[in-house]
Amino acid sequence: DRRPESAAGTGTGVEAGASADLAFDPDAYAESTLTIQDTGGVAHEVVYRFYKVASYVAEPVDATYQSLNVSVPVRIDGTAVDATGAPILLANGIGGYMPSSVADNTGIVASGMGGGTSRQALALAAGYVVVEPGARGRTLVDASGVYYGTAPAVIVDLKAAVRYLTFNKGRVPGDVRRIVSSGVSAGGALSALLGASGDSPLYEPYLKAIGAADTSDAIFAAGAWCPIIDLEHADMAEWCWGDNPLGGGAQVDPTVSGELRAAYAEHLASLGLRAKGFGALTARNLDAFLLRTHLEPSATRYLAALPDADRAAYLAANPFITWTPGGTPGGGSGGRAAFSWDGFLTHVGARKKNAPSFDGFTLATPENNLFGTGTTKARHFTLYSLRHESGDSARLDADIPAKLDLMNPMHHLVENLNHNRAKHWWIRLGTKDTDTSLSIAGNLSARLTSLGDDVDTAYYWDAGHGADQDPGAFVEWIGEVSG
Ligand code: DHB
User: Fold this and answer.
1) Phi, psi (5° rounding) for residue 29?
2) Atom of ligand 1 nearest to the CA of 187
3) Residues 114-157: pLDDT tens digits?
4) Which residues line ligand 1 (CB under 6 A)?
5) How big is the chain by its Cα radius of gyration, in Å?
6) What was the ipTM of the complex prediction?
7) CA 453: distance to chain centroid?
């Protein structure tokens, strides 16, 4: 733990000022019993306390979203557990940068995407405290037509939720110095951003304005599944799926795609990313980096785990993969998959989004709305798309650059390196997830790795958007890194 003790919480005394309203009441719970199936299919009976916190800020804009729930295990399979010092999973349920409310929930969210056990429930059954925060999102609009959930509202709210927990050190169950956040897609982006931007002064005025507790918002660890981050460069990351057809078989505009790709080469050079075995990551070796570091190991894990006959059938149906039996990197005997970038792209097939994928020319993407402001629902946030529509002398609105920094974890890891960031990272992405470029998570992982952080990154072979194929491993990882 590199988080300063002095920054983490204020003891059990209630502070004066805005934070006075924010004391957690340890007695305000309802107890219930939940049967939780673990990843091995074993059912556990978990008795837990469920706390509803009406708002994690003293001056909520909309408490329907700015509230949180806390779940604390007290008995697991008949044995009493004490979660006083347990890690806290801060599981956001954000998708699409949309508003996310937990206000009507009467218990922990027990089932996950695809019908399995939720990450939260698995964490509860492992003896951890689970906090589910709501947050404002991009579509919220008040009676006078003002958008009040656009950037940076969602990250400000999540930070306020962290501050609430930190402020309540000793009152709220769990170890507030072991907050591990999780989220998927936009929620994964926010989780990564929460991890990267801990205690950044850039958010201070926004946090003050809603009466957030005056304490640390740094977290210990961040888990991010298919994080939709680096929005202002994600259109340029076009290099990845650029040649793939859209769902109906059409190609994207080759001029647009080509211009964006060319810009990405320059952007990459400015990032100065490095990776072991590759030196500087450039437009020339980024495909090889992804292949060798993430994609071939992903296919190798997938194929090595298959029964021989199934592996043979998969390889026969996918001749772009060269399978070398035995000699797994690291000394295993399972074999090794190798393939070309072009072979991989053909295998993935249709791309989900047109070009540009994020800053749409017609302002119709979720991200255009995310960067709306006041009564303006949607805005451009890249010069490329803005100038495509409005001519070469057009300028981004003056507030846009600062808002991009507030929303982009890479800003806090590169240009404005944050030493109070989380130092433990769990990054996951499906190899068939074309919601954004595969290099978006790849760059995040490469940067964190070269910073010396503890980074566990894996791509799930042939998996699409939102996949989580090793939820049990994540819960174990929380225990390991928190210990
Ligand atoms: C999500 C997916 C997207 O493709 C995107 O651009 C933003 C968010 C999501 O699933 O949360």
Assistant:
1) -130, 160
2) 11
3) 778 999 999 999 999 999 999 999 999 999 999 999 999 999 99
4) 95-97, 185-186, 228, 366, 435
5) 23
6) 0.99
7) 17
